[in-house]
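User: quick one, sequence for these C-alpha cells?
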C-alpha cells in the first residue's frame, strides 16, 4: 500500500470561495505509530483509537486560545473507555482501557463499546470548560460526531474518519451560519456534501491532502491553508506528578513508599516514570523554609 508517510502529521483548513462552507483535513502517521508502540492494542481497538485521535485533531480548531479538547467515550462493552485529546498547539495523546482478551469477530462501534456515550470537552485555559454529551449509537464515530454538531451547534457538518495499522486520517466540512442568499447556500451545501460522501476510506489513507481534495472538489474554488504540524506530546511533568502526590496526602504516599521502598508514578499516556525517594517525599510535604535575609 502506498501510504502517505512522507507527508508530516498535520492539520489543514480549507474554504470554498464564495460559499459559507469551511473544512479541515488531517492525517496522523508517526504520532499515531508512536502512541500505538506504547500500548498493545488489538487491531480493531487500534483503528478505533486512530479515529478518536483524528477526531480530536479535527475538533481542535474549535479552540480559539490555549487549551485542550477531549473526545472520550465510555461504555459497558470490551472497551470501557477510549479517549483522545488535542491541544491548541496541536499535540495529541490518548488511551484506551478495557478487556481486550476476547475480541475475535468484534469490530463495530457497538460491539466494541456496548452501550456508550460520547463526550466532547473543551477546556480553554483559565476559562470555564464546556462539555457536550451524545449517545454513541450511530454506526460509526463519524456519524456520532455529525449528530453532536447537529445537536450542540445546529451546524450542518459531515465527517469522515479512517484508520488502519499505519495511519489515521479525517476530513470535516461544515456549513457556517449563512449571511446571504439562503437558496444558494443550501444548493452549495448539497453540492459539496454529496461530493464529500464519495470519499472512500482507502483514498483517505493513501492520498495526500491535496490529492484527496482535488479528487473530490476539482470543480469547486477551494482554498487550502498552510499545514499545522501535529505531534504526539504528553503534558505530564514531574511537577504535575508532585501535585498528584500532594493531593493523595502524606500518609497514603508514605504507605506506598513503605511497601515498595520508593514511589514510582508511571504516566498512563506516555509511560514516563517519575520516581520519588523518601527524601523527595519529605521535601514534598515539608518544603524548606524560604531564606530570610
Ligand atoms: Zn505522560
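Assistant:
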Amino acid at each position: 500500500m502506498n501510504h502517505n508517510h512522507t507527508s508530516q502529521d498535520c492539520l489543514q483548513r480549507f474554504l470554498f470561495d464564495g460559499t459559507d462552507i469551511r473544512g479541515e483535513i488531517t492525517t496522523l502517521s508517526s504520532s499515531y505509530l508512536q502512541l500505538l508502540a506504547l500500548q498493545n492494542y488489538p487491531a480493531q481497538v487500534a483503528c478505533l483509537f486512530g479515529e478518536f485521535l483524528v477526531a480530536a485533531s479535527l475538533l481542535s480548531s474549535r479552540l480559539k486560545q490555549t487549551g485542550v479538547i477531549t473526545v472520550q467515550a465510555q461504555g459497558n462493552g470490551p472497551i470501557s473507555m477510549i479517549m483522545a485529546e488535542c491541544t491548541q498547539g496541536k499535540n495529541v495523546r490518548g488511551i484506551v482501557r478495557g478487556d481486550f482478551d476476547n475480541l475475535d469477530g468484534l469490530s463495530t462501534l457497538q460491539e466494541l463499546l456496548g452501550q456508550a456515550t460520547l463526550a466532547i470537552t473543551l477546556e480553554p485555559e483559565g476559562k470555564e470548560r464546556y462539555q457536550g454529551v451524545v449517545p454513541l449509537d450511530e454506526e460509526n464515530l463519524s456519524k456520532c460526531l455529525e449528530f453532536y454538531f447537529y445537536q450542540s451547534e445546529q451546524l450542518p457538518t459531515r465527517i469522515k474518519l479512517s484508520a488502519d495499522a499505519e495511519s489515521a486520517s479525517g476530513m470535516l466540512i461544515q456549513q457556517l451560519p449563512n449571511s446571504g442568499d439562503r437558496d444558494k447556500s443550501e444548493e452549495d451545501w448539497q453540492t459539496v456534501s454529496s461530493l464529500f460522501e464519495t470519499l472512500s476510506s482507502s483514498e483517505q489513507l493513501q492520498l495526500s491532502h491535496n490529492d484527496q481534495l482535488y479528487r473530490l472538489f476539482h470543480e469547486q474554488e477551494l482554498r487550502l491553508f498552510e499545514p499545522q504540524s501535529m505531534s504526539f506530546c504528553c503534558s505530564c511533568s514531574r511537577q504535575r506528578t508532585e501535585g498528584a502526590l500532594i493531593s493523595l496526602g502524606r500518609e497514603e504516599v508514605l504507605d506506598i513508599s513503605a511497601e515498595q521502598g520508593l514511589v514510582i508514578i508511571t504516566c498512563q499516556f506516555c509511560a514516563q516514570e517519575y520516581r520519588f525517594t523518601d527524601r523527595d517525599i519529605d521535601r514534598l510535604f515539608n518544603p524548606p523554609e524560604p531564606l530570610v535575609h
